[in-house]
Amino acid sequence: MAGFENYTEQxxxxxxxxxxxxxxxxxxxxxxxxVRALAREALDQSAAEIRLAATSPIDxxxxxxxxxxxxxxxxxxTMEECARVGFECHGGPAWKAFGKALWAEVxxxxxxxxxxxxx
Length: 119
Hints:
Structural class: mainly alpha
Helix content: over 70%
Radius of gyration: 15 Å
């Protein structure tokens, strides 16, 4: 970390964009199954999907999906940085639901026996 980071502001901006993408995609952040599937998809996003979104700017849902998956990476990195400096950062309902699902998927993938572990 190069210097002071405003994690509260970063968190607020990231969550606002997550909420916007969620509206476009019709995501119900209270639906654990839907959000977990979305987190799984975010971690599996392929370069082909990114190229497709770049060449098909008319497909707003595809663009929102690719943006949301990019936000997932930024979100995880922000939470890791906050934890490293001892600062608790979290947003509102969309952030918490998506973050919980992302960490569960990350833990599942890191588990040697394929069973979820708490992050």
